[in-house]
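Sequence, please.
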């Protein structure tokens, strides 16, 4: 064979293509040069090397009908028995829907789904719980601890896709829970469990079974170090609902959010309390984020944040003390440090509050996180209250964004925030001027409007003295 022929053969080899974005390369690489995904560059068989295209006309299962004649009864959501989960899903799980629940290790995904499976089994539905990470005995111990035992809840520990589909065929369940999708592998696909090809094959097979049987399926998914769902991006495109289960391992509070939902909203948040006895929904979690101090304490101010469409009352605490080091400390817990630095700079420049030589410690109560700008005003009032050693009046709540010019900007959802504060017994509120246009103040609440920080401090009664 001549050298020219060898070169022609090498050029005729099919290129390598990324299964995620379609980027091509002349040789195999471990990481895609376009989307930067790992393990997605595979050999492309070319237009003639793969399976033949479908040319024959297949018979239809049912004739096409006008869309107005399609019945929606089979697509109505069925409640799971966990109100906080139903809130996020949009009323419950739709038959044939595939839900992907992702979260960090130890956040409580398996505990939550085991409780959901037990509640569904108590209503008379047959539930198949497949675990690929733990043995059946380990899951049985957890079920006994959280009182999730029921004869209609069937348990299997399997890691082979064909065996899992065999269990589905034999049991014919009304709900399938798979923990987790990264631990199941197919013998027909190369690669280890959790790989790109394996996860795609497992998800596609389970989705096909769910649609053909009208079987609701809940998949547990792992996450990467940055918090995104592990595996190929197509996994999130294939499933119907993608939920993120979040929570600090040092706190009992857990939050469930939907980042994709074909059957409901994506701006709802479910709150849960994780304890040794299991996981319990929190229909009213605001009490977790408010301290139980009997008397007003300097350096505390309450605000109301919006988690999706849900208002949550959160207490912000600040401690301002003289610094013993040339560079004063700025320590935060539950508050963005850059946001704190900006608010302190505005206080010093616009109000003359001397904070450059003071250590400032800011924290939230109960492990809550205040990440939206609506908490700026409460942060500023708490810092001024601690600096002047003057407690804010009892029953005061502050909502507003602080601008660099010292102005108080309006925020979204002021009416819902004030209604939540009034429900909890707060009687005074400091809000940005103009935020109540067309909105009636709650009964029994005095609303004080402030256009800038100076007016807000005076309305709150923080007693800031510019001479200090």
């Amino acid at each position: 064979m001549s050298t020219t022929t060898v070169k022609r053969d090498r050029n005729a080899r099919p290129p390598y293509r990324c299964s995620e974005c379609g980027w091509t390369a002349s040789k195999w690489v471990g990481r895609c040069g376009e989307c930067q995904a790992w393990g997605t560059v595979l050999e492309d068989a070319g237009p003639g090397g793969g399976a033949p295209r479908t040319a024959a006309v297949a018979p239809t299962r049912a004739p096409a009908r006008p869309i107005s004649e399609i019945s929606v009864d089979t697509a109505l959501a069925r409640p799971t028995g966990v109100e906080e989960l139903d809130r996020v899903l949009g009323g419950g799980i739709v038959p044939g829907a595939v839900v992907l629940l992702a979260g960090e290790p130890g956040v409580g995904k398996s505990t939550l789904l085991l409780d959901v499976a037990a509640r569904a089994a108590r209503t008379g539905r047959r539930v198949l719980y497949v675990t690929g990470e733990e043995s059946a005995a380990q899951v049985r111990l957890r079920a006994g601890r959280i009182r999730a035992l029921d004869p209609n809840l069937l348990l299997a520990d399997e890691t082979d896709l064909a065996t899992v589909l065999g269990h589905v065929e034999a049991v014919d369940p009304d709900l399938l829970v798979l923990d987790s999708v990264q631990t199941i592998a197919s013998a027909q696909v190369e690669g280890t469990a959790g790989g790109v090809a394996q996860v795609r094959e497992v998800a596609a097979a389970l989705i096909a079974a769910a649609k053909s049987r009208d079987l609701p399926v809940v998949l547990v998914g792992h996450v990467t170090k940055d918090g995104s769902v592990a595996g190929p991006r197509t996994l999130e495109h294939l499933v119907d609902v993608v939920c993120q289960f979040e929570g600090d391992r040092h706190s009992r509070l857990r939050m469930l959010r939907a980042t994709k939902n074909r059957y409901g909203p994506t701006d709802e948040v479910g709150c849960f309390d994780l304890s040794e006895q299991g996981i319990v929904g929190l229909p009213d979690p605001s009490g977790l984020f408010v301290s139980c101090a009997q008397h007003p304490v300097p350096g505390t101010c309450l605000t109301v944040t919006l988690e999706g469409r849900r208002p949550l009352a959160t207490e912000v605490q600040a401690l301002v003390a003289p610094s013993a080091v040339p560079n004063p400390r700025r320590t935060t817990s539950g508050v963005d440090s850059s946001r704190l630095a900006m608010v302190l700079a505005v206080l010093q420049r616009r109000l003359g509050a001397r904070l450059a030589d003071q250590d400032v410690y800011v924290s939230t109560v109960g492990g809550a996180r205040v990440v939206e700008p609506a908490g700026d005003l409460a942060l500023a009032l708490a810092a001024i209250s601690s600096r002047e050693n003057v407690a804010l009046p009892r029953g005061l709540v502050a909502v507003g964004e602080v601008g660099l010019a010292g102005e108080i900007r309006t925020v979204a959802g002021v009416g819902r925030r004030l209604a939540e504060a009034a429900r909890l017994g707060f009687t005074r509120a400091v809000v940005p001027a103009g935020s109540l246009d067309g909105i009636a103040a709650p009964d029994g609440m005095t609303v004080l409007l402030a256009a800038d920080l100076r007016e807000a401090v005076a309305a709150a009664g923080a007693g800031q003295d510019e001479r200090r």
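The longest strand covers residues 310-322.
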